[in-house]
Design brief:
The complex is a heterodimer of chains A (129) and B (131).
Chain A: H1 6-10, H2 20-46, H3 52-59, H4 62-90, H5 94-125
Helix pairs in contact in A: 2-4, 4-5
Chain B: H1 20-51, H2 54-64, H3 67-94, H4 101-130
Classes of the chains: A mainly alpha (129), B mainly alpha (131).
């Protein structure tokens, strides 16, 4: 421990080590989800059809593919933060908690990567006929 | 570690009378977990199906438009709007407003009404357009 000021010594040393960053990002991604998921719902409802050609042609457009990728990032970031809080509340044993966080990170990053790759594939290879 | 029996525990869930704000709080968590698992996997499945070609997308569409597909999609729609309206309520609470007992109770009662109304409006319009 240094001989700094009182606030300098305790800053970031609460039981959770950090917290506001998690809390703020939960809100930032919540706003992202609010805008982007509503955009997705309204867009899907306005599509003339939901068959293969209609959906891939629509997804291949850059002004669809880009917000869709942003939505994947926002959704998976938000669910990772949210599920972390749920795990912290109900899983108390350190080893199990560590393993659950490991799985949660794999799920969030893997799921987001899969989603973004699918969008990119459709966008870059063009809508298949 | 075993807690000494003589030490009192803080009153917990079991002793409180259920109010709308408590129901809303646990619904926020339940719908959040539901969306995080079923909603997110459904979304990624839809996107990967579209990226996998016409044949697999047809298989996806067949599942999605089956009776269980509709049950899941209607459930996800309700969970999203419940979580969304409940989340908007949280934004209000975050700025320090809406904690007065009556105000808090009113908004807790309004949120599920809004989510059920929106879900019903969307799916009734989908089904009426189809028929």
């Amino acid at each position: 421990m240094g001989s700094g000021t009182g606030i300098g010594r305790v800053r970031g040393l609460g039981s959770a080590k950090s917290g506001t960053h998690h809390w703020i990002n939960q809100r930032v991604t919540a706003v992202g989800n609010l805008l982007l998921v509503l955009w997705l719902i309204i867009s899907i409802l306005q599509l003339p059809a939901l068959d293969y050609v209609a959906v891939t042609t629509w997804l291949a457009k850059s002004w669809v593919a880009v917000p869709m990728m942003l939505m994947i990032v926002s959704v998976f970031y938000h669910l990772r933060l949210g599920l972390q809080v749920v795990v912290e509340d109900y899983v108390h044993e350190d080893g199990t908690k560590f393993a659950t966080f490991l799985l949660l990170n794999f799920y969030a990053i893997g799921g987001a990567a899969l989603g973004i790759f699918a969008i990119a594939k459709i966008a870059f290879t063009g809508a298949a006929s | 570690m075993a807690r000494p029996q003589t030490r009192p525990l803080s009153p917990h869930l079991t002793i409180w009378k259920w109010g709308p704000h408590m129901a809303l709080s646990i619904l926020h968590r339940a719908t959040g977990v539901g969306l995080a698992v079923v909603g997110a996997l459904g979304l990624v499945w839809w996107l990967t199906a579209a990226a996998s070609g016409a044949e697999y997308y047809a298989f996806f569409l067949k599942q999605a438009t089956s009776w269980y597909g509709y049950v899941v999609m209607i459930g996800i729609t309700w969970a999203f709007f419940q979580h969304m309206f409940s989340g908007l309520r949280h934004f209000v609470l975050d700025i320090g407003a809406g904690y007065e007992l009556k105000t808090n109770k009113s908004w807790s009662l309004v949120v599920p009404v809004l989510s059920i109304f929106t879900t019903a409006a969307i799916w009734l319009s989908i089904f009426s357009g189809k028929l």
